[in-house]
Amino acid sequence: MSKVLLIGMSPLPFENDRKVYGTGIRTWQFLQPLLGAGHEVCLVSFAIPSAYPEGFGSKHIKKFSFKDTSFAYHLLDAGDFNDTALLSGIKDDFGPDCVIGCTFYPSYIASKIKGGIPFWADLFGHVMAEAQARAAIDDDDSCLFHYWNGEYNIISSADLFSCVCQRQEYALIGELGAAGRLNRHTSGYAFTTSIPCGMPRQEYKHTKKVIRGQQGVGDDDFVFLWTGGYNTWTDIDTLFSALQKAMAKDSSIRFVSTGGEIPEQDTKTYPRFLSLIENSRYRERFIMKGWIRGEDVPNYYLEADAGINIDKDIYEVRLGSKNRILDWMRAGLCVLSSNVCELTQIIEDEGIGYTFRPHDSQDLCRKLLHLASHREETRSVGQKGRDYGLENFNFSTTTVKLKEWAASPCHAPDFSKEKKIFFDKEEALKKLESISCGQKKVIAEKDKRISELKAVLDRGFAYRAYHYMRALKRKIR
Q1: Are 255 and 273 within one domain?
Q2: Is residue 207 domain-resident?
């Protein structure tokens, strides 16, 4: 077995914090199977600020235990996580056989400290598509360089990459080509593999009532549940419009939401959704709980009738996936989602949930009303989704290639070799272009001087003499 330095994000799902993000779930999806396979793991994890109390400081736990597993756990605040000297020291003290970066930001940090050991980078979604969505929300493209700088550092140095879907693999292969990684050394080498969002096999348990009998929600009401952050991809306009139409036709429909804005990513979408609700004639049927304790979230899954996910039809979603959908499936909660990503296409193809056309409030309204009026069917489809998910998306099945590589980590064929496109030729072309531009400026200046001299000659002697001397003086300079 190997010694694995895993660089990820926290809180992990079992840590009882108010906010559990997809990056923390992804880290646990990697960590648990590695431990189960017998690898010795040292986890260095970024403590996402909004999920921890103000003033949180780094923690270094030599032996962190959870159930029947244990691992070294360095839970770092922002300052320490960006301290490459500190992380390099942790790496050297541990002496790993390989480094695995789990999600984009940790993979970027890993690319700066990996040294000469094999490096696996997990690109949890296509970051440049995320950058595009962020730029659109902010109406500002200045973030693009920041994202690409991090992406380039990762793709130019990692030996193997994991993506959340096959679609993202192809997008990444295009980036690898642009970075010069598709070279003579790597012909035939498989740079990428797909690790879809996963679910642990543990059963959810209902511990207390959180929806029924509270805030006017009765046992006969039909509850559509939203859980998690309202990110840049969330199509709140279509969601709100469809709910308004459906609520007008069916008085039993309720919308319950846990989660909210994401301070590190999107602080505009959720507040705008709240403002729409405030002006709605059905605002009492919107139960907006905000971020809640992680231990309470499963109770919402188990009391709701269907989970609803709604995405914009943008590249970030097309090339990504949805952890929240897997959480609902694990609970046997029927899924209703816009069909944009690979996971929702699987749901439609396998008949394990319901989908609707993105940006189509009429289609969504029809599906809302259908589910609310076909409750037995909805429950049956939810159970079917659970069975499919546990068989195909469990942590162990999704990470087979990761465990195999960790057992015998190796470099890509172009390790320590030149792996860039020959930019010297491109630089030469740029220099020629620069020289050409310079020559054009010189020619333009000469033409200007000739025109001035010609104008002088066309005038009287004194005037010509004066301006001729001025032109001659400039020429001498």
Answers
A1: yes
A2: no
Question: How far is it, in rounded angstroms, from Cα 215 to Cα 285?
Answer: 9
102: Cβ contacts below 8 Å, ≥ 6 apart: 6, 7, 8, 9, 23, 26, 27, 30, 31, 122, 124
Residues 162 and 275 in one domain: no
Please give the residue range of the domain that contains residue 285.
222-394
How many other C-beta atoms lie within 10 A of the C-beta of residue 377? Answer: 13
Q: Which of 119, 175, 180 is nearest to 405 (CA)?
A: 119
pTM of the model: 0.81
pLDDT values of the chain reduced to their tens digit, one per residue, 477 residues: 899 999 999 999 888 666 778 899 999 999 999 999 999 999 999 999 988 888 899 999 999 998 888 999 999 999 999 999 999 999 999 999 999 999 999 999 999 998 899 999 999 999 999 999 889 988 999 999 999 999 999 999 999 999 999 999 999 999 999 999 999 999 999 999 999 999 988 889 999 999 999 999 999 999 999 999 898 889 999 999 999 999 999 999 999 999 999 887 788 899 999 999 999 999 999 999 999 988 899 999 999 999 999 999 999 999 999 999 999 999 999 999 999 999 999 999 999 999 999 999 999 999 999 999 999 999 999 999 999 999 999 999 999 999 999 999 999 999 998 766 755 555 554 555 566 666 667 676 767 776 765 665 555 555 555 555 555 454 445
Helices (H) and strands (E) in the chain, counts: 19, 14
Q: Residue 131's CB: how many other CB atoms inside 10 A?
A: 21
Strand, helix or coil for residue 364:
helix
Euclidean distance between CA atoms 169 and 256, whole angstroms? 35
Q: Are 372 and 243 in contact (CB under 8 A)?
A: no
Q: Rounded to 5, what percent of the chain is helix, strand, coil?
A: 50, 15, 35
Q: Are residues 368 and 279 in the same domain?
A: yes
H or E stretch at 385: helix 375-392
**Contact yes or no for 119/99 (Cβ under 8 A):** yes
**Does residue 267 sit in the same domain as residue 378?**
yes
Structural domain count, the chain:
3
Which single residue is written with the structure tokens 């929240």? 324
